[in-house]
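Researcher: Please translate sequence to structure tokens.
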Amino acid sequence: MGSIEYIKKSEVMKLRARSKSSTHADINAGLLTRPVRTGGRSVAWPRHEINVLNAARLAGKSDDEIRQIVEALHIARQEAE
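Model: Translation complete:
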């Protein structure tokens, strides 16, 4: 995989048009990947994951289908280690 661009929560919220509380609720509901710890107390998301999830929403995927995509993205993270 090429270089990974990380984006902070504020940009994730903007790209997804979701509030801070909705972002946390989506993580808890399995509708958004968990953030990656980037050092200390800092976290961010790989931009490509947000793009994949936004494209799935745009394509009309159901919440259950989105959860499957989120799980696949988490597995891909583990395999990349």
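Researcher: Any highlights?
Model: The CA atoms of residues 20 and 42 lie 16 Å apart.
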